[in-house]
Amino acid sequence: MSTYKAPLNDMRFVLYDVLGAEQEFARLGQTDATRDVLDAVFDEAARFTETVLAPLNETGDRIGCRFDKDTGAVTTPPGFKQAYAQFVEGGWTGLVSPVEFGGQGLPYTAGVPLKEMIDAANLAWGNFPLLSHGATDALLHHGEDWQREVFLKPLVDGTWTGTMCLTEPHCGTDLGLLKTRATPNGDGTHSITGTKIFITAGEHDMTDNIVHLVLAKLPDAPAGSKGISLFIVPKFKVARDGTQGDANAVRCGSIEHKMGIHGSATCVLNFDGAQGYLIGQPNKGLMAMFTMMNTARLGVGVQGLGLSDRAWQNALRYSRERLQGRSLSGVKFPDKPADPIIVQPDVRRMLLTCKALVEGGRAMSYHAGLQVDVSEHAPTQEEREQADALVGFLTPIVKACLTEWGIECTYQALQCFGGHGYIAEHGMEQLARDARITTLYEGTTGIQALDLLGRKIMQLQGAGLKIFLGMITQFCDAQSGNEGVAEFIGPLREKTAQWQQLTLQVGQRAKANPEEVGAASYDYLMYSGYVALAYWWARSAAAAAASRHSDAFKQAKLETARFYFARILPRTLAHAAAVGSAASTLTALDEAAFDA
Amino acid sequence: MSTYKAPLNDMRFVLYDVLGAEQEFARLGQTDATRDVLDAVFDEAARFTETVLAPLNETGDRIGCRFDKDTGAVTTPPGFKQAYAQFVEGGWTGLVSPVEFGGQGLPYTAGVPLKEMIDAANLAWGNFPLLSHGATDALLHHGEDWQREVFLKPLVDGTWTGTMCLTEPHCGTDLGLLKTRATPNGDGTHSITGTKIFITAGEHDMTDNIVHLVLAKLPDAPAGSKGISLFIVPKFKVARDGTQGDANAVRCGSIEHKMGIHGSATCVLNFDGAQGYLIGQPNKGLMAMFTMMNTARLGVGVQGLGLSDRAWQNALRYSRERLQGRSLSGVKFPDKPADPIIVQPDVRRMLLTCKALVEGGRAMSYHAGLQVDVSEHAPTQEEREQADALVGFLTPIVKACLTEWGIECTYQALQCFGGHGYIAEHGMEQLARDARITTLYEGTTGIQALDLLGRKIMQLQGAGLKIFLGMITQFCDAQSGNEGVAEFIGPLREKTAQWQQLTLQVGQRAKANPEEVGAASYDYLMYSGYVALAYWWARSAAAAAASRHSDAFKQAKLETARFYFARILPRTLAHAAAVGSAASTLTALDEAAFDA
């Protein structure tokens, strides 16, 4: 079985030494978020995730959720319900929610390490509370007063959970095609009818009620995505005064048999004239849904990070324990029958790949989280808008890259185990199977790529990119006299300049041919992720050197940065070449000739 | 459920148009292997694999092998045993085995497309007959006359199957550590005692007997890998006159619960004084085992190819069927509610990546197979030796690259399905889980990389590389006037020159520091694979243009070659940069500081 230990030391390094979060929270007026408070929160989160959630991970996978087709009920794996009760008891569900609705009001950023720990400990379990955050956000930003009053408190305190009901059998990415209908009843309620699929936590036994946020079309709705509205549809009816009534006309039709996250209930939900309340404006549902989706996307990125971290922790342990062969530069452990495989350079390549992607990815995602706080609490509107643009720009990069790297890290970590990695009892294959969902849900990597290049760069004139490039340049300028990181500054400046050129180049080509954006998008996205990570590694090396961490810690940051620049960053060469290729290399082949 | 259609058209293109196999077989005196005969064989193989094996793939995964701990018996999934009986009935087990032992004596090359079809149709099932080939080879090359007489015929005609028993709980790669003991009984037999793990097809219900080839140590054996001997240990004892006797003292202790290939029995075998016969010379067992391993490694490479092909066939079908969104360059199917996703450039990127890796990999692996025939049947010893060196050089590339690409193709193909790819009923996730074993067994990718760079390049002075580079240069020279492929020749020459330089560079560095080989090995391997594939794509484009295939087929080869050169071959830039990095980027970090 794989084990998990929360990487508190590195989490704190990222928050305090790299990002200066403590000072930042003070500046933003989030005065409760002192280092003492946060450290206590993280210590307790580590205890909870390591001792309560992590031990349930293997049984959750093996036993999975059970579906009773007679009643439509879903039973979660043994221990999941009790763990959720403890989670609620500990006040975790409202950690970063507003005090006015019963939350603890800590910064959004503080929720990111918590989420990383939950996902590393037990990704499938983590999906139950996860979606409540999206529902909370949508209600906060788009709900009427009474809706916030009635639905927010139980979502924040964990009495109820939430869902996001978007996908239908024939449409996922293209929501304009959806068929679910909402008919006004004349009393302020609507009757919702249709079938939704892939609904995470759509049915379960953890709470007394579930609040579904459902996309549907009103009778007079315009065609396509401009005619979508959002509705609150609770599993048990809830009156405007908050009293809970009879079962609503929504029923779980089945749960999916999946490659992984067996402990997470992925439901087909059949709405058959279910009572619902419109949330926000008619036909503006997609915008409200995007509010939920953005933080959900950052959250899925963090899922990739958590799984990667757990995988590499175990690979490191195994590589130190497994005795096999001898070092080529001479026997390292003459008293043992063989040397541990960590002496092999190629095993170190796999371990360092994970370490570089995990720790760099941690800085990248925590920084994105911090920008969410800045976008809400910065003193000036200009700064809030800038941070908002930055979050919009970083979200597809964090979501896509951290999940793609999650695939890679769980792959490399499993590979360190050799054939043993393929055997269920070591737990590595579960991590690989669980990771596989993360590049699919909340928008595939391809969709993130289009969001980045098509929307955040082309449509918004690269506002977020400009801010981010400015940050890199500012850092490089500030480090100009620092010999400890001088080796990284030149290559970083070079890549930053190339990033700008590539962006202009694609923009030019897109004027003549709109297919150029789609053709370049994936490689542009990955290029961006690797350059961003180079920035985070240079900053991490600089921050470590200036910190009070141990010499071993400083050595590890410096050598991992060197490894990253020498052996991972060159992947940008391949991605840049692909971005530089004409769209015709993808579009020239006749569709019918693919299998001629 | 995923479907499978044998790609006979492309298989024939590779064999006849790219490789000129028909003329080659005639030159080698393999006169039975006419195009008529081979085409009939492939047609029948397609029918068998598509209609008998492919439909058992999903149930094989879902039900898997069952183990009875009271009897030690393994029951294969429903239909597997009957399919094996049909396979034996059809004479498939001996397709490429010598006529003198009951085989059909066709070239080794003819077995490669057969194997590709079997693996694509049902990888788990394919593992049962697979290991018989290794046992057959070992007996052919190292067995005494009576051993060949008694054991070969039933292995060739499929009455019995074979295994390779190498791995033990504490040793896989480092066989010098093995503990299984062989004690001479004084009557020409030995008593074998020890535990072997990860034994594919180690126990099953398909045949009356199983021939285990077991590595063990004689009492006076030298330490390490120089003291390993190979033994024949049948499940039921077999006398020297071939009569089958009582059960031998070998028992299956359990079968592994794995990420995939659930229909393949991966056994723990406990030998408790089992009767065995020494095969080959005492203490020379490793060499005999390498005979089995080389063809087994090529075979596992072909497993990666088969899975990739099945995955991409299904992704192509789905991408044509799934309607979602509209083409950015204007609506393509106005009569439909949305365009099929194949109009999206990024979906085409994923499909073309698969197509390029599958079809290029097919040429690469069939060519390696052809060299096995040349190494055995060429008229001059010099040519046979050259082909043998080439096979040795190509084997780790084919094994490692085709399986790594199998991971990538099953990933990309699943990704084309979006969230539906994660659901079991579509069958894509099974392909991804099954593919995951291929970069592990028969030597991990890291082990292949060391075999290539450490052994085939450094120890053998790059004999195989020189021959292969000569082939590429000869091709480039011959095409100098061919405008149809001129765009590929320049880049191919450039990469070929760089391949030589990188090889010399690592060789130089390795003189000063032996760790340089291990540090460069993986990236050197992948670099080699991508340049080799560039050669096969240039040759494929040239061969297609000169062939009688359809215009659509010719367009597809040309455009896929262009895609490959523009968007995949640039990965060599990243691998070359990593090869060029000093070993210190991997070795500098103190082992204890990895998680400081």
TrEMBL record, chains A, B:
Residue ranges constituting the Acyl-CoA dehydrogenase/oxidase N-terminal domain according to the UniProt record: 40-158
Domain Acyl-CoA dehydrogenase/oxidase C-terminal residues, every copy: 283-451
Family of this protein: Belongs to the acyl-CoA dehydrogenase family.
Entry protein name: Alkylation response protein AidB-like acyl-CoA dehydrogenase
UniProt keyword Ion transport, yes or no: no
Domain spans labelled Acyl-CoA oxidase/dehydrogenase middle: 164-272
Gene3D superfamilies: Acyl-CoA dehydrogenase/oxidase, N-terminal domain (1.10.540.10), Butyryl-CoA Dehydrogenase, subunit A, domain 2 (2.40.110.10), Butyryl-CoA Dehydrogenase, subunit A, domain 3 (1.20.140.10)
Superkingdom, taxonomy of origin: Bacteria
Cofactor(s) listed in the protein's UniProt record: FAD
Organism of this sequence: Agrilutibacter niabensis
Domain Acetyl-CoA dehydrogenase-like C-terminal residues, every copy: 468-590
Phylogenetic placement of the source organism: Bacteria, Pseudomonadati, Pseudomonadota, Gammaproteobacteria, Lysobacterales
UniProt entry keywords in alphabetical sequence: FAD, Flavoprotein, Oxidoreductase
